[in-house]
Amino acid sequence: MESFRSLTVTQRDQILVEQQVFDIFKTFYNLPPSSQSFMLELQRENHVEYLTKGLTGLGPSFCVLDANRPWICYWILHSIALLDEFVDPELENNTIDFLSRCQSFLGSWLHINLVLPVGADGAQAHCALANYGPNGGYAGGPGQASKILDMIIVKLLPTVFCMLTMPHLATTYAAVNSLVTLGGDKALSSINREKLYMFLRQMKDASGGFRMHDGGEIDVRACYTAISVASLLNILDDELVQNVGNYILSCQTYEGGISGEPGSEAHGGYTFCGLATMILINEVDRLDLSSLTDWVVFRQGVEGGFQGRTNKLVDGCYSFWQGGIFALLKRLNSTKEVKPIPLGDGEGSGEESPQTTTSSDAAGEEGLNGDLSLGGSHSEIGDQHNTSSQDNVIDIDHNHSKGHANVEPLFNSLALQQYILLCSQELNGGLRDKPGKSRDHYHTCYCLSGLSVCQRSWLEDEDSPPLPRAVLDDIDKSMDALLKSQKSKRNRPSSISIPKLPDWNECLVQRGRKQLVKQAGLCRRWNTVQPFCSMEQMLNTDC
């Protein structure tokens, strides 16, 4: 007990989390096979019920997320798509209407409707309002504006407050992806591509990065949301891409991961965003992929899940933010020559984890078997954006894959599935950060996304289903790893070769139904594809 008190807060918290996870695994290990199978079952119906309920109404405790309402839509809709389910037409229409009211049209609306109604002072207010802030993009909710705009409106125009919004890149990303996930004429035509393009241009900074909002912070997250939305809507051009790669490079740290801004600490979410951005702009070879791989490999801890940063606790959401990095690395463009990645002899943060050797250990829970994946064509969607020539739009070359290479994943996918299904899943629906935490839509979305990455990480071809038995068979090894967590060091190979693989953001159609619907220049595919190449990666494949 005395030795426990002498530890740092971080060390004490880590020991407590490991003990909680160990207790869950120990309980599982002592159950009969039938009960073990139930605990490893993905509770699809309960998850869908929990998610659908979130679209119909939320309790007062969610007021803290008032500025993130498009994100709530995205987390829920993406999770439902991962589970191969749909929302009913009425709920879909309500969602589209709500997101449309989050879309900013500040300058143009005021210019049309405010015709000097209050004398000279009103004329000044009209000019200030009509030119205030960016026009385009999506805000955190209907009527959400900046404090400066609030003060003007409260004094002069309180009746029109609900018509004004201050757009933000993060909520723009969430809203656009939500609408594209829903698909259909109404959803897609509601996106004003011309004004959204102008908003992205206004957020572009001289450093090469992007600002999250007018006068806001510049970081890697802003780069990813801006570039991915532009890529998805086929409005990505040279002006948006200019110097973005330089900014991302300035954020890669000595550890190998990518930080939010230059000089900060490497972080799983920012590393995913930075790597995905570099792939989208065709500059991924500029990154130090060797050190990046080295860093992310050792973010998987003894619990089986991932931590977001060095010396931090495991968190279910990093099942995707870190797990998705491996998916991107594995699917790097096959036309690029990638040399073997030496990993050196340094020590990792985790301990010895279970090793697998054959592709027959491909793991997954059959419940998670579907996804919405999109292929954006180069045809028009809605309004034209204001560029000098359509030829300026970047056309990313995509090579269609014939299947997966027979290469084992660079992370322990079985151990991660065990953590998600046993420690993050709540049997009555929803997923959580870690044992002792409450479920929420954010962790539900990214735990399911990470689970999907795991299930596809061992596939040799497009028709190979996941094998849930592998999760059961591997539990003994996880128990051994936990028991040795404070006693042994993780062994790592001297090098890992990144194979020549098909383009990371190509739509691969798996078994099951396939429905191709062309609407307003976008292609919509409902099938059983890799969820990691759906909404988190913007597809530009010609259909």
UniProtKB/TrEMBL annotation:
Alphabetical GO biological process terms: prenylation
Keyword DNA-binding assigned: no
Cofactor: record remark: Binds 1 zinc ion per subunit.
Annotated EC: 2.5.1.58
Gene3D superfamilies: 1.50.10.20
Skewed-composition ranges (Polar residues): 352-361
Keywords attached to this entry: Metal-binding, Prenyltransferase, Repeat, Transferase, Zinc
Region: Disordered, residue numbers: 339-400
InterPro entries with a match to the protein in the record: FTB, PGGT1B-like, Prenyltrans, Terpenoid_cyclase/PrenylTrfase
Co-factor(s): Zn(2+)
Limits of the Prenyltransferase alpha-alpha toroid domain: 42-457
Described function: Catalyzes the transfer of a farnesyl moiety from farnesyl diphosphate to a cysteine at the fourth position from the C-terminus of several proteins. The beta subunit is responsible for peptide-binding.
Assembly and oligomerization: Heterodimer of FTA and FTB.
Membership in a protein family: Belongs to the protein prenyltransferase subunit beta family.
Protein's UniProt name: Protein farnesyltransferase subunit beta
Species: Gossypium barbadense
Source lineage: Eukaryota, Viridiplantae, Streptophyta, Embryophyta, Tracheophyta
